[in-house]
Amino acid sequence: MNNYQIRKVDFENPNTSIDYRFWTKGYVSKHDHAYHEIFIVCDDEIDYNINGKNFKLYKGVISLVKIGDVHSFKPLKGGNAEHINVIFSDELLKLVSNEIDVKLYDKLITENISFTLNKQEYDYINYTISVLNNTDRRSFEYFSELKILLTNLLNIINRNIVKLNFIYPAWFNDLILTVRKPSFISASVKDVYKASSYSEPITIDAFKKYTGLTPIKYLTQLKLNYACNMLKNTHKTTLEISQDIGYESLSHFNRIFKSHFNLTPKEFRNKK
Questions:
Q1: From the centroid of its chain, how far is CA 147?
Q2: Is the pLDDT of residue 238 over 90?
Q3: Which pTM was predicted?
Q4: Cα-to-chain-centroid distance, residue 154
Q5: Tell me, what CATH number does 216's domain have?
Q6: Which one, of 221, 218, 211, 224, lies nearest residue 193 by Cα?
């Protein structure tokens, strides 16, 4: 017997194939449902469980939850586990995916989709949600705007998939997908080598060939991009951010940050 809730219909209008909600609950219990959903984290930090695996997700992370996936949310360090939740039927996913790329639907169903949006993408989603909030939920305009939003979300996801699959051999693509997961942000370069299917020298050569960077420089770039996002969009201290991305020494993190941006984390945060 399942010890979780099965949600079959969460659409406000059961005659439609798409809807959205902005969740502000402090805790969302374990459940699955008979539709797909894309969610975007709006809170500073949430504890996320999907199919028995736990992850920390941060503001700006977008994830695809597929039919049958069992998941739950809870806030970390206070907060409300706030997230935007776009839900849609399998038929609609097939229709919109095929308009973008005939292979996209199969990729969405078979791959784990979770990555951090850039600022422009995140701002676009927030703007569209503000438009939807001021539109009659029963109107044609509301559902047209929602379908446009879904199309753009799937385009963003497809660009991310294409970017990660472009010219990479399969084993290296799998490695890059692992390294770019939000849950990997605190890892070290040794963890990169452990996750690789090949030896350390071959892995280093592949990074140089396909990204133009060594593994340590590639990982540092991801960590610093994450740190910039946290500095601008959260109230976390520099120490908390440095610990989140795996730096035990705050002074070491400050030196690396300044060497890349010619600013200290504090100066970056205060810069308009």
A1: 20
A2: yes
A3: 0.63
A4: 13
A5: 1.10.10.60
A6: 218
* Tens-place pLDDT, residues 174-192: 898 889 888 899 999 999 9
What interhelical angle do 140-165 and 119-133 show, nearest 10?
A: 170
Task: Evaluate whether 96 touches 64 at the Cβ level (below 8 Å).
Answer: no
Look up residue 204 and give its amino acid. Answer: I
For residue 176, CA distances in Å to 35, 181, 206 come to 29, 9, 11
Tokens read off for 224: 């610093």
Q: Which of 110, 135, 165 is the last residue of a domain?
A: 165
Same domain, 17 and 149: yes
Q: What is the DSSP track for the chain?
A: --SSEEES---SSTT-SEEEEEE--S-EEEEEESSEEEEEE-SSEEEEEETTEEEEEETTEEEEE-TT--EEEEESSSS---EEEEEE-HHHHHHHHHHH-TTHHHHHHHS--EEEPPHHHHHHHHHHHHHHHTS-TTSHHHHHHHHHHHHHHHHHHHHHHHHHHTT--HHHHHHHHHHTSGGGTT--HHHHHHH-SS-HHHHHHHHHHHHSS-HHHHHHHHHHHHHHHHHHH----HHHHHHHTT-S-HHHHHHHHHHHHSS-HHHHHH--
CB 62 within 8 Å of CB 117? yes
**Regarding predicted confidence, which is higher, 7 or 250?**
250
> Does residue 108 sit in the same domain as residue 238?
no
The verdict on 17 and 134 lying in the same domain is: yes
Say how far apart CA 272 and CA 262 lie, in whole Å: 15
Residue type, 178: T
Q: What is the mean pLDDT of the chain?
A: 85
Domain count, the chain: 2
Q: Which domain holds residue 91?
A: 5-165
